[in-house]
């Protein structure tokens, strides 16, 4: 294991561990308001300062990491599984199947998903508990995002379909599933990981945007998305640079995933 | 290269004249119309105020009515008619003369149902439109069949329009529109025929022109102001106000409580989506009062508004010196008293959860509009306050369109946190909120008949003030409405935000007030140094 990969594993493990242990290691509850200390600078009592209504930024970041780090990768995985599944179906010899799937992909890419989210919000009871709301939001994001991954997988599979080794495998009587698992997956794995890395931050930011529609993570529960909303206002950053911590953590996690992914790419190439 | 004698002369002449005095500020959007009779939103309203010539103007500082295009006026003792006498020699900005016929035509157009003019609404009467006549070239008579309260107050919003229509209509106010590039700017030039002069005989306005840039981004507006490129920011949020106070201390102005208010109410209307037991809570005065009592309004003012707001005490802000009932005080925070009142009403606090007498946990949703940081923070504070008495709320932020549909049509909501931007100080502006039949009667819009005795009493008081020409009678009625509003609390008033603005020290003659347009209400007297 090369050093960057080792470092990435360590960092990701620490972040995940901190998220899991949030209820025990966070100095305060994520919704506890210290109204005498709004927008306080970092100090002994509040290591990262407080937000505008006096909630400890460190505690909120720890809890937010739990929500975002669990759900955004899950949604990305849903997109990739769906995208890959549809792409494999599109390899079918039946022309109508290929054309129908191509049409569905194009339709899915052109759909104004934001309106579907608005409709979902309108249909959800107002008293839906925050956990259900979060799960539904990320599930829908995962389903909505399959087409981007699907297009990339389709293009790769089309180029692989004409490869000599595939013809040889088929000629030798290998079962389709075995061909997919043993021969094709190593080629697709790097694409899947790349898509995974692209979709995670996209979904975290999408969750922040969906907050504007009343979907996603509702107050007082924190997520990276709703913590990132603070960055829309330069004043907040000027007053307390620790407001950038969620962004820094997001970047750190993405760099680690990139490091792990690039190492995997090298292995596949070799 | 040396300048020629002619060029030198031109430069000297220009220097002798001095630089053109151009006021510079921004608006968040384009005016939707330049037709003074079709104004229905704030950007068009700004242009109308700066350009429109009105017969009478309300002095925003004293609250008194002052003569403008009309040099005198008389309201009949029965409160049914007004006679206005115009100044001599009035002209529009294009040089055409302004006479009584223009006033009559303006009013008739405003009242014409085909025009659907918002400016005409205030002049309408249940007993029919008024009779408007020009008895001479300078005299106009307006007569109603029944008493029309505050007749002379109505003219502040009515700009007299010329007969000739144009892309940029001629005006009788201090400025006229010279250019409008949608999405970029509106350029106003001084009206060369404006009637008003100062005591030294100099024609007003002092400013030569006004450039209003269309700028949606508050941060860019702030940066430009701090760089000295803008002379004012009309409305600041608390964060930006504190920044101006820090970086340009002389420019930050806090005018104290504004006329606006932030409040919360419960849905009392019959609704398929609100269970009966919850509706019983919302209909209970004790429940509403107890929940109101457990909101820490001073914390909202101090934390959410950084101290730039005041605890609200009912429908009128204390800034409304004419109509505010000084005997009415904001509800003081007292969660122990709230629990006592809830207990008397059959509620029980069990293991940190408040339950009604049927055992239902008190939990409901509060909707507010998304993207409004201030309201989201207020909701978070209320959530925390109510959690202390065992009440759980789910905060749901919705886009404004969905929210309005829920609170006015489908009634699919339980409680709502919103605000009112009050433009007028007169109570007539709040009639549609407090009349039980009002479309904007928040807790139960368009009630066929008042559902409670106190609502019936409010209806009667409002009709009494609307049909009386006697100021003392009106004040007494409005005082009682405020008292009932605070006893019954169908609306839980939270805070009146302060009016915060930034004004460059180079802008002279400014006398900002709580009543809109707070900064440029006396635009003709403003100077740049």
Q: How would you explain this protein's 3D organization?
A:
The complex is a heterodimer of chains A (270) and B (529). Chain A is 71% helix and 0% strand. Chain A is built from twelve helices and no strands. The longest helix of chain A has 35 residues, at 176-210. Chain A starts with a helix and ends with a helix. In chain B, 29% of the residues lie in helices and 22% in strands. Chain A binds chain B through residues 31, 33, 35, 38, 52-54, 118, 121-122, 125-130, 211-214, 218-220, 233-236, and chain B through 219, 239-240, 243, 273, 296, 299, 302-304, 306, 363-365, 367, 370-371, 373, 376-377, 379-381, 383-384, 394-399, 402, 412-414.
Kindly summarize this structure in a few lines.
The complex is a heterodimer of chains A (270) and B (529). Chain A is built from twelve helices and no strands.
Described by strand count, sense and barrel closure, the largest sheet of chain A is: none
The low-confidence runs of chain A, each spanning 5 or more residues with pLDDT under 50, are none
- Cα Rg of chain A: 22 Å
Could you say which structural class the secondary elements and strand pairing of chain B correspond to?
alpha+beta
Order of helices and strands of chain A: HHHHHHHHHHHH
How is the main sheet of chain B built? 8 strands, mixed
Tell me the overall shape of chain A. elongated
Average pLDDT metric of chain B: 90
Short key terms for the protein model shown above:
heterodimer, A: 270 residues, mainly alpha, elongated, B: 529 residues, alpha+beta, 8-stranded mixed sheet, 4-stranded mixed sheet, 22 strands, 29% helix, globular
Secondary structure blueprint with pairings:
The complex is a heterodimer of chains A (270) and B (529).
Chain A: H1 3-20, H2 22-25, H3 57-89, H4 95-110, H5 113-123, H6 130-144, H7 146-161, H8 164-171, H9 176-210, H10 224-228, H11 234-239, H12 245-269
Helix pairs in contact in A: 1-3, 1-12, 3-6, 3-7, 3-9, 4-7, 6-9, 7-9, 9-12
Chain B: H1 5-17, E1 22-27, H2 42-51, E2 56-58, E3 65-67, E4 70-75, E5 81-86, H3 100-111, H4 118-121, E6 131-136, E7 139-143, E8 175-181, E9 185-190, E10 209-214, H5 218-226, E11 232-233, H6 238-247, E12 252-257, E13 261-266, H7 276-283, H8 285-293, H9 297-304, E14 309-311, H10 335-344, E15 348-350, E16 353-355, E17 363-369, H11 373-387, E18 392-398, H12 400-410, E19 415-420, H13 431-434, H14 453-466, H15 471-488, E20 491-503, E21 507-508, E22 527-528
Parallel strand pairs in B: 1-10, 17-18, 17-19
Antiparallel strand pairs in B: 2-3, 4-5, 5-7, 6-7, 8-9, 9-10, 11-20, 12-20, 13-19, 13-20, 14-20, 15-16, 21-22
Helix pairs in contact in B: 8-10, 14-15
